Amino acid sequence: MASASKASLIVAASVAAVEALKDQAGLCRWNYALRSLHGRAERSMAPFSQAKRMSSSSIDQWRRGGEEAVERSRRTEESMSKLIYLDSWGPK
Length: 92
Fold this sequence. Notes:
mainly alpha; DUF3774_wound-induced; Wound-induced protein; single chain; signal
């Protein structure tokens, strides 16, 4: 029985110490400041997380852009080989 009352006394003293520290050391104010900084960091990172979530239409546009780039590259290569052929043709 003595150990139970001793344990409850320790718990009560611990709770009282925490409450006193919150009041005197301004831990509540620190908690507000930390929550505010955390919220600001989340808001500043929001554009990056939205970039991860692409809609299917934007994925299709991205794919089409890639296909167009491949087509442009193919045409450029063809015109360059034609130019080299024409340049090498004829009298030297």
